[in-house]
Design goal:
Distance between the termini: 47 Å
Radius of gyration: 24 Å
Number of strands: 16
Number of helices: 13
Order of helices and strands: HHHHHHEEHHEEEHHHEEHEEEEEEEHEE
Bound molecules: heme C
Number of domains: 2
Oligomer: single chain
Shape: globular
Strand content: 25-35%
């Protein structure tokens, strides 16, 4: 009820301000323009990821499997971008280097960041465009390759320098924390992963984004050379059932009065679950099943952030699970002998709804997109709360 009142208030406010803004996030210096044109550093012949991969083979092989590498080619991005009239500002994060842009911004009309003026980009690199969030997007600035080590610890064929941002969240948040617009009627930014983490319990325990998304590894940067402690370039998220499964812990606790409490805890995600793209939704069901497989009771949770996009953007609700928060479902055992009853808990992750997918297919050319809904968890317990089976999941990371 409170949510609806807030929403109503916000609508009135919005109508009063009469702002026709269509941008879904604030355009500031950081979000309006990406990284300026980058020259090839001394000692190298190309800044393409595959060229970096000639030497940094292990990292290149990892990066290639990630959504960062697919940030431009991803059919879901392409269809959505088409739906959003190929707005230039999407590219600030999906192909951040000017080298990756077919058109470059010459200036902003009257200094207004939402009114860029363009000219064709003579130095456009079509291969680099395909690489989305490519190596150079994070590592290359003004002829120097920045990274987590001081130059004197390395023997590199290209200029190198230490940048502390590689060891903190700040390298991620330029793209993973999007400020709300003053008129967007949201309680938090549209992709608020950074703020969710900052307001949660992990920051004080020293967990950074890299702790979970770039697991620590000791290996040579180039095979045959000496080993360093670094991070795997894996960045698994909603497109990985294995990563999503890490978010939750399930416990079944027998209470008095024949009741069972099923505790669902976000014990593994450093931010809300789910996070990021507001299309993500999670469905959890807990069932009481008898020995012939009949469901005696089913309880369910539907977890999501509900946003209305048109005609104006309003956030109606957000029941995503906070880091370390527990949600509970309750089941009641029938009277009599219950030894042969089991409790089955299932989790489904939805990348985008079937309705949204159909729309993108019908109007915006989405095709051959992999499953948009998948099971990431299936667990069985006995009535005393002991876990019976834990079906192994398909592994997608090496
Ligand atoms: C010809 C081989 C070669 C190529 C090509 C190459 N590197 Fe390197 N790079 C190295 C070597 C060697 C080191 C230092 C390894 C050592 O001393 O242990 C290094 C170091 C680094 C470091 C660590 C920097 C620091 O200060 O922490 C980063 C990051 C890096 N390279 C990224 C890249 C990127 C991005 C590209 C492509 C634009 C690239 N490299 C292309 C050989 C190469
Ligand atoms: C230049 C912008 C940019 C930077 C910097 C960046 N990301 Fe991303 N990231 C993206 C984009 C864009 C996507 C979505 C790509 C797609 O699915 O189309 C993404 C996707 C992801 C995903 C989701 C993968 C999935 O399966 O859906 C994770 C996890 C992630 N990034 C983690 C990180 C971490 C951790 C850092 C910091 C070390 C980081 N990112 C830095 C732009 C960026
Ligand atoms: C989204 C940003 C991002 C992209 C894209 C990216 N890196 Fe990195 N890279 C990092 C971060 C952050 C670290 C530091 C990880 C750590 O030490 O915890 C790092 C570390 C490194 C290192 C030092 C060794 C290590 O594992 O720490 C090398 C070498 C490197 N990256 C090369 C590459 C190459 C080559 C590519 C492309 C194939 C690439 N990176 C793409 C963010 C990025
Ligand atoms: C304690 C471990 C942990 C930390 C710390 C953490 N994450 Fe995650 N992250 C996860 C897990 C587990 C998932 C999969 C479940 C989910 O989507 O919430 C995930 C999912 C994601 C996704 C996927 C969203 C999507 O739509 O597919 C992104 C993006 C992401 N994290 C970014 C970040 C960033 C940025 C930070 C730092 C501010 C961070 N994470 C810190 C564990 C962590
Ligand atoms: C400030 C950086 C930023 C901008 C600007 C941006 N995105 Fe993204 N986008 C991301 C990040 C980060 C992710 C992935 C992680 C997540 O779910 O938060 C993502 C994910 C997506 C996804 C989901 C991809 C998948 O496979 O799951 C789509 C679709 C998308 N963006 C489309 C767009 C469109 C269209 C625009 C322009 C209207 C846009 N983005 C602008 C950063 C950005």
């Amino acid at each position: 009820m409170k949510n609806h009142l807030i929403a109503l208030l916000q609508v009135s406010l919005f109508l009063l301000t009469g702002c026709g803004q269509t941008q879904i996030y604030e355009l500031n210096e950081a979000t309006a323009v990406g990284v300026p044109y980058q020259e090839i550093p001394k000692g190298l012949t190309s800044i393409n990821a595959s060229a970096c991969g000639d030497c940094h083979q292990a990292i290149y092989a990892e990066w290639r499997t990630t959504m960062h590498a697919a940030a431009y080619t991803d059919p879901f991005f392409q269809a959505y971008w088409k739906k959003d009239k190929q707005t230039w500002s999407c590219l600030t994060c999906h192909t951040p280097l000017e080298n990756q842009l077919q058109r470059r911004i010459t200036q902003f009309k009257n200094g207004d960041l939402s009114e860029p003026q363009f000219e064709p980009n003579r130095r456009f690199d079509a291969q680099l465009q395909q690489e989305g969030v490519t190596c150079a997007a994070c590592h290359l600035r003004d002829g120097i390759i920045y990274g987590p080590y001081p130059a004197e610890q390395l023997n590199a064929p290209h200029p190198v320098a230490y940048d502390e941002r590689f060891l903190s969240e700040s390298i991620c948040l330029g793209c993973h924390e999007v400020a709300e617009t003053p008129f967007s009627l949201m309680r938090s930014g549209i992709c608020g992963t950074g703020d969710e983490w900052k307001n949660g319990p992990y920051i004080s325990q020293g967990y950074r984004c890299q702790t979970c998304h770039m697991p620590e590894v000791t290996r040579p940067l180039v095979s045959g050379m000496k080993s360093h402690k670094g991070g795997r370039h894996l960045w698994r998220g909603g497109n990985s059932p294995e990563q999503v499964a890490k978010a939750l812990t399930i416990q079944v606790i027998p209470l008095d009065n024949r009741e069972l409490r099923v505790d669902i805890t976000n014990s593994g995600a450093g931010h809300k679950f789910p996070t990021g793209d507001p299309d993500r939704e999670v469905f959890i069901t807990a069932k009481l099943v008898n020995k012939v497989g009949r469901d005696l009771q089913t309880e369910a949770l539907h977890i999501r952030r509900l946003i209305i996009w048109k005609p104006i953007m309003i956030e109606l609700s957000d029941n995503r699970i906070e880091p370390l928060e527990t949600r509970s479902l309750f089941l009641t055992l029938p009277s009599g002998q219950n030894q042969e009853l089991t409790i089955e808990v299932e989790g489904i992750y939805q990348i985008l709804s079937e309705r949204a997918r159909k729309k993108l297919e019908t109007y915006y050319g989405l095709k051959d997109y992999p499953p948009v809904r998948y099971q990431f968890m299936q667990k069985k317990f006995d009535t005393l709360g002991h876990e019976l089976t834990n079906r192994p999941l398909t592994t997608d990371s090496k």
